[in-house]
């Protein structure tokens, strides 16, 4: 289990789909509203909004919810969200990047700092760990979208830089500024992606042992449960055997 593709594992492990789903819808709505406010409220004219809407559809978010989130930006009756990033270390020296959309920096910073300190981690200064990651585009498709060879060929043709496939999903990595173009090309050949967003890809990964894995998962869970936190990235690898024991 790698640090950038763990959401499904955690959802399955906790057995708390409903809670995660409602939290996920709230985060997706926030991203749609922010994207619509920053550009045109039309997904065809606004690449970031198009990706946000596609991500929401992939999670079966109702059309009414999506439209409401867009209208919220157009109506101007929304909080002023800003994008903030936090960087720190988790158990076992794992590097973690937290991306948030918040209308209250103090609240979010306090919550993130508390999550780190209560779960064997330390919040660092800006830039503390991001130098060990590459900023790239990440497009994910479910395993059922096609076999590894077919996805690889489609991704290559669309201009992607790297592809990795496992039994759950296919991850297509692109250059940061090519994300929208590659996502659009893949949509034409494979259909809408499960998600497409800017990501932090670790240059090297850290194998986490059983002793640290439980605390690390608790840290990641706590961060992801925060309404302001959009995404948590890490450079960790947890073996299937250890994940099985954490069950």
TrEMBL record:
Gene Ontology cellular component annotations, sorted alphabetically: cytosol
InterPro entries with a match to the protein in the record: Integrase-like_N, TACO1_YebC-like_2nd/3rd_dom, TACO1_YebC_N, Transcrip_reg_TACO1-like, Transcrip_reg_TACO1-like_dom3, YebC-like
Keywords for this protein: Cytoplasm, DNA-binding, Transcription, Transcription regulation
Compartments, as annotated in UniProt: Cytoplasm
GO biological process assignments: regulation of DNA-templated transcription
Domain named TACO1/YebC-like second and third: residues: 81-235
Region of interest (Disordered), ranges: 1-24
Limits of the TACO1/YebC-like N-terminal domain: 5-75
Highest taxon in the source lineage: Bacteria
MF annotations from Gene Ontology: DNA binding
Gene3D superfamilies listed in its UniProt record: 1.10.10.200, 3.30.70.980
Family statement drawn from the similarity comment of this UniProt entry: Belongs to the TACO1 family.
PANTHER family for the chain: TRANSCRIPTIONAL REGULATORY PROTEIN YEBC-RELATED (PTHR12532:SF6), TRANSLATIONAL ACTIVATOR OF CYTOCHROME C OXIDASE 1 (PTHR12532)
Cited NCBIfam families: PRK00110.1, PRK12378.1, YebC/PmpR family DNA-binding transcriptional regulator
Name of the molecule in the record: Probable transcriptional regulatory protein IQ35_01504
Organism name: Sphingobium wenxiniae (strain DSM 21828 / CGMCC 1.7748 / JZ-1)
Lineage: Bacteria, Pseudomonadati, Pseudomonadota, Alphaproteobacteria, Sphingomonadales
């Amino acid at each position: 289990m790698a640090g950038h593709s763990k959401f499904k594992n955690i959802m399955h492990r906790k057995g708390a789909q409903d809670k995660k789903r409602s939290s996920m819808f709230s985060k997706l709505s926030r991203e749609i509203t922010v994207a619509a406010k920053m550009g045109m409220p039309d997904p065809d004219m606004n690449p970031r909004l198009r990706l946000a809407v596609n991500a929401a559809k992939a999670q079966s978010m109702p059309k009414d919810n999506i439209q409401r989130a867009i209208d919220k930006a157009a109506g101007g009756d929304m909080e002023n969200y800003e994008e903030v990033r936090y960087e720190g270390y988790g158990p076992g020296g794992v590097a973690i990047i937290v991306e948030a959309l918040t209308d209250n920096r103090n609240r979010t910073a306090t919550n993130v700092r508390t999550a780190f300190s209560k779960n064997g981690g330390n919040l660092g200064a800006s830039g503390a760990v991001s130098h060990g990651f590459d900023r790239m585009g990440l497009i994910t498709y479910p395993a059922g979208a096609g076999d590894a060879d077919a996805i690889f060929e489609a991704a290559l043709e669309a201009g992607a830089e790297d592809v990795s496939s496992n039994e759950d999903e296919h991850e297509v990595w692109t250059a940061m500024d090519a994300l929208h173009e590659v996502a659009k090309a893949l949509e034409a050949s494979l259909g809408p992606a499960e998600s497409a967003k800017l990501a932090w890809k670790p240059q090297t990964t850290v194998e986490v042992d059983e002793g640290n894995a439980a605390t690390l998962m608790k840290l990641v869970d706590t961060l992801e449960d925060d309404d302001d936190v959009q995404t948590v990235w890490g450079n960790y690898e947890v073996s299937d055997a250890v994940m099985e024991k954490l069950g």
